[in-house]
Amino acid sequence: MPPNDVLDQLITQFFDCVDWFMMVFHEGEFRRQYRNLIASVDVSASDGNNNFLWLLLLVLGLGAHYSSFTGSLGERQQNLQDLSKRLLAEIEYKFLPIIGSPNVEAVQICVLMGSFHLFNGRPTVGLGVLGSGIKIAQVIGLHRESMWQGVSDVARETRRRSWWALEVADKCVVSTHPASLLADQLIDYFPDTQPLPLGGRAL
Known about the structure:
- The chain has a two-stranded antiparallel ribbon.
- The chain has helices spanning 4-22, 27-39, 51-67, 76-93, 95-99, 104-118, 123-139, 153-176, 183-186, and strands at 197-198, 201-202.
- The chain is an all-alpha fold.
């Protein structure tokens, strides 16, 4: 990984280029968790529920992606592009364990990664990842604020922002990728209730 000052710049780039319109995070809380993680001696991704680490790597990858477009970086531009590709590939590789630990961070990963792929040449992947985010959000009750008992104001706001970002992304997808089959077109495709002959027998 790059030095800490470069990581700080990548996170700032993410908030300047991405989070200002998606508002997935409470920035102060995200930065606090980031500082705590950087300051810790043992950073391990072996814990199956350590989705904040994967979320941080995704934020760094997106920050590197958008930093590579600025003209002021010179020779570091290619390094940032390579870093972005490696981090995003690592998140994709770990995607099943990430969504296997359903929490707010898993939803945030789905929102960010799904949106990124949707608008960067892999729309089918983006749709699938956003769909996963919707299901995880439903599993953890992100759409039902009445279920959030005993959470802090910051956690409540983070959950609201995560659900809102997911809902906006979903509505954007629906408006740009409408259903390919209408309900009346599906009528002809229902299974026949009559037994089917197979080798002299009826199924």
